[in-house]
## 1
Amino acid sequence: MAVIRLASGQSHIVPRDKFLAQLQVFLSDDSSFEVEISPTLESHRRPNSNLVALRNPQGEAEITVLPGHSGSQFISGTSLFATLSIASGAGGETRLELPAFEVGGLRASTILRVIPEGDQVYIQVGETGGDGSLDAGSAGVRSALRSSIDRDGLPQGQRRDLTLLVDVTSSMNYSTSPECFGAMFTFAAGVLSSIVADRRVQLLTSSASSTPELLQGAESIQALGQREFERREVGWGVELSQISPDEALVVISDDLPAEVLKFPGMVHLLSPRPPLLPQGITATVFDGQMIKAVTEHNDTTLRAPTRIMYDTLTRGEK
């Protein structure tokens, strides 16, 4: 038996006249699920079975997995695993191993598309839903957001470059506890994983000597909560003209400095205390309740603030 591992968005081609397959699905929490398949693809599934037989594609078809027993959404942190075994003649088969799908907080996940063209069938993997390297805290934040927006994030081609701007003044040092500082980065990583994906993310500090530092995805953002920033500066010296107005700007600060107010693009502030905000700029305040919600993965409490940050940073996108 040949085994082929596919990544998100990848395709595998098989002869159309030999398309006879069996899909196997598992959820990490062993909960029940339903499978919806376009009528252009013949399918059969026994009740409560994790196996689905597939054959005779007559047009483009999608295979979508939904929570079982009328559940409105997958439980936070749930992963979906699937394989597709395809008969290859003479008793042999090819097994396609799909990547893990991060489905927590979603109402449905399209895991495969079956596209017949001429005498071939293209089997295309759906979007896996995120960054498997996120820790439990950031993954919980992402699940809360996805349950609010009812999708994984922005489609490819609509995602944004982003600058994360961190206040390193002495005021920030006195106003922010280590727990609060860490919660801010955990929250930022969870929300931004649905916005930036494969786009460029850079770090700047408020220091005049700050130079852009390229971050490798959302997991690098969550790691910043453990970094020892020297928060001893007096005032802001960073030059924000180096940031494109087309980018999203996330500011971690105990105040909203005049330099940021001049930025023409989209801005969201993460702050340990309520700031005075002009129209068009939003904020998440990390008081004791918010910090607890992040550390305990409280989906109900996190849903509204994650949506506010998402809506601000993706303004104008659909």
Note: The helical segments are 136-149, 170-175, 178-192, 218-223, 258-261, 288-295, 299-313.
## 2
Amino acid sequence: FETASSTMAFCLYELACNPEIQDKLYQEIKEVLAKHGGKPTYQALQEMPYMDKVINETLRRYASLSILNRTCIETYKVPDSDLVLEKGQRITIPTYAIHHDPEYYPEPFKFDPERFSAERVRERHPYVYLPFGEGPRMCIEVLFWWAKISKMKK
């Protein structure tokens, strides 16, 4: 399915189900656009941190990739365990399960953009949010997705 349109549809659904979040986002948009002559400029979009939180929470709840498949490029011993990943071994990373694990995201099925406040992001392991994968094999769609979402913010 098409990533940007699906994400926007899920985002609109969550905003409809959570009017307090919708109101907070509306106020942010209204205040920021007032400072920018009503135009959703690049700078204006950069001044909408709550918008980013809402989008990130939407991507956590409804990531387009439920799993990531990778091939180990060198033998690797997992720290603090007896597990060894051999070179050439196929690895599946269950992103949906990680994004909905209460150890990392309490009440994982609750739509909570504040999970993406700077403080709460710092408290989490950096690899428990993987809507597009991570590292050199990150989905190239992320570049197109951010461009589309930025246009849709208008």
Note: The chain has a mean pLDDT of 87.
## 3
Amino acid sequence: MPKAEVRNTDRADRILDAAAELMLRLGYRKVTIEDVARQAGIGKGTVYLHWRSKETLFRALLHRASIALTEQILERLETSPEEIRPHRFLRTAFVITMRDPILHAMLLRDTEVLGDLRDSLTGSLESVVNERYFALMAERGFLLDMPHLSYAVSASMLGHYLIDRFDPSVPSDLELRGEIVAHTVRASFEPAEGPDRATVVSTATEISTMLRDLLAHYRERIYSHDPTREHG
């Protein structure tokens, strides 16, 4: 990557860091481009060199949070195809999401944090990939053949994400809670004997390809207004 492009990418990330801090503190509705520029220590015009509006800036911020989640899941899959199994896959996603307040707000569609950005999450490419993952899990025997499977799994997982809002006795150790998620999914939704090794490997490869495509999509959306790309 040329040095100029590296500098612009680094500056874009600095702007996104500032936007993230402000959104979590004030909420999307109250943050202005002027606030972001001040927080990042740059001029307002510099922000507009990268993103043409407040909405495109903060959409890029959500994409960057999704990159962090996707990269970590992909890294685990590349280390072990067994990580594709739902109880392991969902455990990993749970722990990563709970550690990142922006990902957590996205998952819960938190209006206080996200404001109108909440609506942009519906029908996103990430949702399509998520649906494809669960379809493959059901088709290839990773999950039980049961009515309304997607709803059942989603309802169970949402409980794990929300429980600490209602029960102060929930363990603070996220790794422990992740293991509880894994046990719940395995005991409730997976067959006693899952797919063979060949199916595990081929499915992990297919999902990994989808995740890499998703990463490319996110990166393009984040840096699509990079000055280097627009003028070079």
Note: The longest helix spans residues 197-223.
## 4
Amino acid sequence: EFCYSDTPHISAMQLEGIEDNVILIDSVSKRYSECGIRIGALITKNKQVRKDVMKFCQARLCPPLIGQIVA
């Protein structure tokens, strides 16, 4: 994270007792104002959330049929 003072940054990922309830979502385009760069991350310690998110990621690995035909 960007810190503009001497106060140290504390991430919610560091807090004890809420590990399974924290999901961090970040992207290059939002953090650095780089429009169109589609690189991002979803970070969580919750194994069930990771498992469910991976299902969506794997389902979107190929473009839809109409997109393939047009290309």
Note: Residues 47-59 form the longest helix (13 residues).
